[in-house]
Write the structure tokens for this entry.
Amino acid sequence: MKSAKSRLTVKFDFDLMQAICDNTEVFNNEVGYILRTHCDLKYKEWRYVPEQERAPLREKLQTLFDVDLEDANVRKAIDRQMQRAWHGYRRTLRDHFKTVGGAGDITNAKSKPYEGVSKPDWEYLCNCWSDPSYLV
């Protein structure tokens, strides 16, 4: 791991639960990247992602950023940004699903996974989005 001097500083507004500093854009982009590449897509919503899966995602941020993960408010602010990124990514995936056939042509939709999503993960998501009980 890099020393704290070489990592970027991130300051948070704990009322807004978001980063507010010169490095905010880099921080938010890294959160999105970490979620897209390391988070399991099987959860319907971010709130269902268990702590044992969230903690390693937060820890990955320490490679680039000097963040105090011992501080509960910092963890909450990071989780809030992860939630925002999660919803944005899932929305992008669902929009792609609809574009390539959606529930009306599930076979075609399954054959065209979103870039960077494994075939098993994509098929799982397609099955979920095609199930009316899942969408409730």
Remarks:
- The chain has a mean pLDDT of 93.
